[in-house]
Each structure stands twice: as structure tokens, then as C-alpha cells.
Amino acid sequence: MKITPWTTEEAAYLEANWDTMTYRDIGEALGRTAEGVKRKAYKLRRDAEVRPAVRLPESGYPRYDKPLERTGDCVILPDLEIPFHHADFINRVLDLACTWGISQAILAGDALHLDSFSTFDRNWKAEHKGGLDDKQKDEAVTFVQKLPDEFRDEGVQLLERIGALTPDADVSGEMGEARKVFRLLAQAFPGGIDWVMGNHEGRALRIFQSPLMPSELLVQVNQGNNPLWRTAPYYYSHLDTCAGRYQIEHPKSAAKTMPAALANKFLCHVLAGHSHDWSLRRDLSGQHWAIAMGHCVDETRLAYAAQRHTTRDAHRLGAVIVRDGYPWLLGEESPWEGLKRL
User: Fold this and answer.
1) Which of 96, 97, 171, 235 is the Cys-Cys partner for 116 at CB 3.0 to 4.6 Å?
2) Per residue in 101-125, pLDDT tens?
3) CATH code for the part of the protein at 71-125+169-340
4) Structural domain boundaries in the chain
5) Hey, how many other C-beta atoms are within 10 angstroms of the C-beta on 316?
6) Residues 185-217: pLDDT tens digits?
């Protein structure tokens, strides 16, 4: 059956008369069927309905798309796990950074260990060692230095035998030791420090069973009012350099392929912590660094890591200094004195 299109004049006649005439009468006037007129009237009425477009309000919840950003040369310290940090290795990194004039740092997650917040099984512990606390040690050293030469060496040996007081294995003891280290880190990096979140910081979330602002951790280590310290609710941050962007990561995955996979995904250089693996690779394109930085914790101080052997690959101490856009991956065998001359 051939369908005759409606003309503009016919449509206008229909609109002008549909309130006063029946569809049959309009159809007879136009030479059309009552059913055809009805369908056209329905379409014209539907098209004539002007409805305002629906607009949803913006969500009142925050967008998580503004991680910390830093620019230029920087020291990246992964997995410090203070107060179980590896002081000797970190001090070598700090010495090199000072020689190179690097004044800013990024703590790449797990800056705090928070052993007291751990939900894992408890570990065997060493005998509690007595000794001197920091104040007592300073007073004793000051006294020994005043002794005559023939007694001074004997006094130093005595202090070494007494040793330092073992910190209490509770929240107060752990945080007290951590505050000392954070105070010194603040002195080492006057250009500022960014603190990326890690799974160990996440222990606080599990203990309190409540969302927390990362700035609460800064308060606990006495850096809450220090404008040079920054933190944010992200497990990564950005470092922009003359050689492109570095993404500082503390991801969920600890796989050996993780840094390259992230570099492939985000099309940028990746410096990753968390795995305690130490490796330097490129992504599939060959354009981006994909580095597992190792760790800065002294694993001989971690009972669960040192008391019982596993078949996992050995972990390695490590850190990175990004200088003029190039990532210097540092490790236990780095030629420290040679690097200082560069």
C-alpha cells in the first residue's frame, strides 16, 4: 500500500481543527482515513510537547583526582617502616642527596610501620634490654667527656656495654621513636617532603574502622603544623621533571611485572615501592622507566621477616634520586663516594 506523505498544509489544517472536528470529518476533508488522521495527530501532539531536559545535580562527594605533585630533583624513599628503618643505608642516601644539593623528598608509602596496629599473629620477641634513654645517654656522654684522659676510654666502653634502652613495644613507644626520625628528615629536606600512603599506614584504618584524613598521621609525628610536609589520601604522587612525569607508586600488587604494567597503563615513568623488589627496567614502549625501588626498612628488625625463612626472592635495600630527570637507583652496593663526585 502506497503511503502518501503529509503536506505542510494538511498538517496545519489538522492542527487547526482537531479540537472542533472528529478525525473522520478531517479525514473526509483531506481525503484520508480516520485512522491515518489519528496517527498523525498523535505524532504532532507528541512532537509539540516541549519538555525541559533533565539535569542531575553534581555529587557532593569529593573526586579523587588530585594527588600530590612536585617538580624537579627529588629523593624517593620507599618503605622506611619507621621506627624499623635501616639507618646506615638511609644515611648514605642522605649524604649523597646533600652532596648533590637535593632538598626535597617523597616518602613512597609505608613510612610508618605501625606494628602495634597489625592484625597479624603476634611474634616471639627478644629479651627486653635495659639501658639508657636518650636523655640519660646525653647526660652520661657529657659526663664522660669531662673525665681525665686515662678514664675517658673506660667510660665510653662502659656506656657501650650499658647500651640504649629498648623502646616499649606499644603505640606510644613506636610513635615516640618515629617522631625522632621524622624530625631529622624534616631537617634533611628543607625543600619539602610529600608523604604517600601505603598499606602500613592503612593499618590505622583497620584499627579504627573509620575513614581518616592522612593529615592525622602528620599530627602524630609532630609535623602537623609544618608547611613543608604534605600528605593526601592517595597511594601515589607525581614528580614532574625535564625528562617527563614520574609516578611514585605504592600499589596493591607486589608482582615483579608491576612497575612496567603501571608504566604501560599510565604512559609515564614509574617508581614503585611495596614489593621490596629491586629492579630497573623499561616499559613495553622502551620510553618509560619501570623501577622497583627496593626498601629502606631493616628487615632484621622485623620479627616476621627475620625469625622464619621463606622461599620468596630476597628483598633488597634501595632508594631513588631523580636528578636532572634521570633516576639513580641506589642499592646496597652503590659506589657512594664515586657518585658524590658526579
Assistant:
1) 171
2) 999 999 999 999 887 776 666 666 6
3) 3.60.21
4) 8-48, 71-125+169-340, 129-165
5) 16
6) 999 999 999 999 999 998 887 777 777 888 988
